[in-house]
Design a protein that fits this description.
Layout (H helix, E strand, L loop, with lengths): L1 H24 L3 H28 L11 E5 L11 E3 L4 E6 L2 E6 L10 E3 L4 E3 L6 E2 L5 E3 L8 E8 L4 E4 L12 E12 L7
Antiparallel strand pairs: 1-11, 2-3, 3-4, 5-6, 6-7, 7-8, 9-10, 9-11
This protein binds FE2/S2 (inorganic) cluster (FES).
FE2/S2 (inorganic) cluster binds next to loops.
């Protein structure tokens, strides 16, 4: 009888030890919550870093529409002459009596592409007949305003740097342009009719 009791208690001890061993091997409820919390924190940090990189890096490369186009001063048309078209940037470089400006090449009516007419010395839209001056000002037609403009920065050979973020022409005042930077990601509405 005593031997049987001893054997039973030995079996119970063994089973209890096994339970303890199983409890020690697996994570506790608290540890599990820590793991979940840690994983969430890592995910949050990963997402924050990805968002930071997304916003910090430029969306468009230089020379790609939506980004900045850089030109040598020698590419700028002489004052009062025909404008220069840059199809990749959807822009026209124009050197008017008021100064230099860069025009968005798309008509403000319904998005056709006005061409430059050397004979009439104006932009003419082939779709519904809107006409624009060399500086993009509205002349006639269904367009609701003049041609839109881009933000421009001019670097002069004397080291001066002049920027126009409102689309207004930059007066040259006899200065020679060394470099032109046109930001095709910064478009400004063209001047209203009659302005
Ligand atoms: S799209 Fe240019 S006039 Fe209509």
């Amino acid at each position: 009888m005593a031997t049987a009791t001893k054997q039973r208690s030995a079996i119970v001890d063994k089973a209890q030890k096994k339970e303890v061993a199983v409890e020690v091997a697996g994570p506790t409820r608290r540890e599990f919550l820590y793991y979940i919390w840690g994983a969430s924190l890592l995910m949050f940090l990963g997402q924050s870093t990805a968002f930071f990189i997304w916003f910090a890096l430029p969306r468009f490369r230089e020379g790609e529409f939506g980004g900045v186009f850089v030109f040598d001063g020698s590419e700028v048309p002489a004052q009062g002459t025909n404008p220069t078209e840059i199809p990749a940037g959807r822009l026209w470089m124009a050197n008017t009596g008021e100064g230099f400006l860069a025009l968005y090449a798309v008509c403000t009516h319904l998005g056709c592409l006005p061409g430059w007419n050397e004979n009439t010395f104006r932009f003419e839209c082939p779709c519904h007949g809107s006409r624009f001056e060399l500086n993009g000002d509205f002349i006639t037609g269904p367009a609701p305003r003049g041609l839109d403009r881009y933000s421009v920065t001019l670097v002069f050979t004397n080291g001066e740097v002049v920027a126009s973020t409102d689309g207004e022409p930059i007066p040259l005042q006899g200065r020679e342009i060394a470099e032109v930077r046109v930001d095709t990601g910064a478009r400004i509405n063209g001047p209203p009719i009659g302005s």
